[in-house]
N-acetylmuramoyl-L-alanine amidase
Amino acid sequence: MPANILMLHYTGMQSGRAAIERLRDPVAKVSSHYVVEEDGTVLRLVPEERRAWHAGISHWRGRAALNDRSIGIEIVNPGHDWGYRPFPALQMAALCDLCLDILARHPVAPWDVVGHSDVAPDRKQDPGELFDWEGLAANGVGLWPAAEAEPVEAGPEALLAAIGYRSDLPLPVLLTAFQRRWRPEQVDGIADAGCLARLAAVAAMIPPAPPEAG
């Protein structure tokens, strides 16, 4: 199946070396196509034409089992359990170049550049609220709303579903995942006026998922 999703993760381990060793260990049963280290070094672990085991139980825009249709990039960062910190500029620049190369080879729509927390909001937090999604979008990777939209009559559940989030999880869980990605200045799982405006702005950028998505 052609890859049409690009998924970004953080490693969530105490060191990049430990993460790479785990990703290369067959016993661990986890893998990714690429790793981007904090100094900007890029390692390819799995060829793009082969499946890597990075997404787990995952859903996005009506599609499930996303390992079958995604390219996964692990970005070295200790994550929320080991001292979460900002992603260095060299790392982000290397990641941006890698993403642009991948997007030139695969039919990935801007709204299908996702974080692990987007596709598994009840399990994952990565790459998290310190990740510069806005900067990536400014360089042609993914989306970022240019301005807030006026809140619409649709409720937060409908807006989240329109963006691509699954609809069978508690609303605070989904809102928290949305905020980590799209409103990192306030990650509290609450749909206040600012959150609703950001939801509407993001939803307005994304077309309906095709009915044949599966």
Remarks:
- The mean pLDDT is 94.
- Strands lie at 5-10, 34-36, 42-44, 59-60, 63-64, 70-75, 113-115.
